[in-house]
Amino acid sequence: MTATTLEERILRLEDLEAIRDLTARYADAINKGWNGKTVDPDAIPHIFTADARWENFDGEVTHGADAIAAELPKATAVVQFSMHTFLNPVITVDGDTATGNWLMWVGSVMGDSPRSVYMSADMTYTRTDEGWRIQSVLIGFGTMVRGSNGGPA
């Protein structure tokens, strides 16, 4: 193990916490459906870098925070309810960049059908003058569980 100063260790802990907080704010921005909660495209420029990249396992790619924000309402139009949770992060900080490998759970209702989806979410992060921002998101293939007879998934 490399010896580090107290300041370096504190900075690492602050960076890890800032990245966790940023990822939670991303989840909040894309959640919808309870107590009047809607998706929040206006939050995206404060979460992503201007040149960010968002990609899913189907190869769908969106480039730029503005494009991600514009796509969000369209992408979630058929979703009545969604709650995103990012779990079990493995976060590596290297100066002003970082990677985060997350397990993502999404509980949702689409077409009155409840479902749960479990996937991977691999993210890169960049430290900016405004703080940490998401540079890229890659959503990996996972598994879906659907509720039966309208009951919980």
From TrEMBL:
Any single Pfam family the record assigns to this protein: SnoaL_4
Gene3D superfamilies: 3.10.450.50
Signal sequence, start to end: none
Chain ranges of the SnoaL-like domain: 12-136
Highest taxon of the lineage: Bacteria
Transmembrane segments: none
The protein's name: SnoaL-like domain-containing protein
Organism: Streptomyces varsoviensis
